[in-house]
Amino acid sequence: MPVENRIIKVLKRNRALVSFDEVRIRNAILRAAESIGGFRQDYCPDINGRIFDACGTEESVAAFLAEAVVVCLNANPHHLISNFPPPIELIQDEVLHALRSYGFQNTADAYACYRWGRHWLREGALRPDQFAGNGFPTERMADSLAWNRARGCDTVAGLNEIVRSGRLKALVDDSIARYESALDEAAQAFVARLNAGDRIRMLWVSGPSSSGKTTTTVKLTQRLQRHGLRFLMLNLDDYFWSLIEHPTDWINDRNFETPEALDIQMLNHHLKELLDGRAIQKPVYSFKEGRRIGTKTVRLEPDQVLLLDCLHGFYPPISEGLDTSTQFRLYIETLNMVHEGDGSSQRLTRFTDLRLIRRILRDAKHRNHSPLLTLLHWHYVRAGELFSIIPLRGLADCFINGGSAFDLAVLKPFYEGAASHLPKSEDVAAYPGFLDARIRYERIRPLLQSVTGISLAEVASSELIPSDAVIREFIGGSTIKIPHNE
């Protein structure tokens, strides 16, 4: 059904006015959907099934969603005045609002990642060849999928058969050997830049939540220390603003997932001071009290490299004014390329879902956070990733895959039985306004149910899963010190 539109103009970023064209909105939504394999990647019968039934074609779905954007824009009376047309950024906000409101979560993520990638291109933070598009590293995904297929674990059904037949040990060993080889290559790339004349003073390890940054940071620095390098770790959590400066939402949750949760101006100033050889008074943050409780004198010695393990390590304002030749950036993501079920649906399990499953477990075991609260908080996590993490991965000098095909089988025993860490259906249903949480829950619950897991005794065995494996950041038993888990 056509909707009435009374908006005539759009305010561009350069302040010029151009004619409003609903077709451009429809085409942008359609391109985002096509980039992930179509709107069917977002099909949820109980949430948006009626839209698919009524629209029929991809073009019709895109037109429906574009009309929803027009309705939202027309709801603001200011936009009906010729001198107050909607700016392009607001229109993009409304596109995301419409997509997420109707349950088109994956399309919204692709749109958001592309949007912010274009933003960083305009800002000059990225070169065109570093643009991440919709956020999916297709070549790396294809390589990882081929590796899994060669071992029969490219589907959940295949993984289950490996577990049932007692062949998981070989898969674990192969996966960890591949991960360790990638770390060797990263260390070699670091040393190669030094040998080429770059005086690297900063090592950034960045990537989205629960991708395995801490274990990777420790293992990489151990390799580099064998080359005679010395490191000074700067804990960026100490740069959080006090809780009083973090407003809460209606369920008393705070958004610590945005880079603006950190005092970026102070951090950037301190980085410059350290690289210039001057001491800083680094803040000391108490999470128990939710505020800074003091300072500590820190100085970077001339032969030391500053080590920074940070979600938003590639965020341009943090390193603004710093010579890029003095920085080495490593990016980590969980490319668990496993198809759902027997693979007939051609739908891959989501990277974000594996990381969410990891984080629910970690938060429950090590941070005393309930699984439900982690699930309800995840929309903040995802928004931060799509703004200042994933679109900037093209800045990385090296890429590490922190996910493995065997992860689901190892995580499964924590999500079954009376002690399951999966939130209860009735608890999720009590928050009907959190559609993002409901969609993710309705995806990870059947995924976990479809997985054949190992036993808790096998999880505890370092003979099966080495005590320094990435997955132990989440299941416990790691011999690597995980500061945030203590």
Description:
Helix 11 crosses helix 12 (371-388). The chain has 17 helices and 9 strands. The strands form 3 sheets. Strands 4-7-3-8-9 form a 5-stranded parallel beta sheet, with helices on one face. The chain has a two-stranded antiparallel ribbon with strand order 1-2. The chain has 2 domains: 9-130, no CATH class; 138-485, Rossmann fold (3-Layer(aba) Sandwich). With 486 residues, it is an alpha/beta fold. The protein has helices at 22-35, 45-55, 58-74, 88-101, 105-122, 138-150, 156-164, 168-195, 213-225, 264-275, 351-366, 371-388, 407-411, 425-429, 435-450, 456-460, 472-475; strands at residues 9-11, 17-19, 202-206, 230-233, 280-286, 291-298, 304-309, 327-333, 398-401. The chain is globular and about 70 Å long.
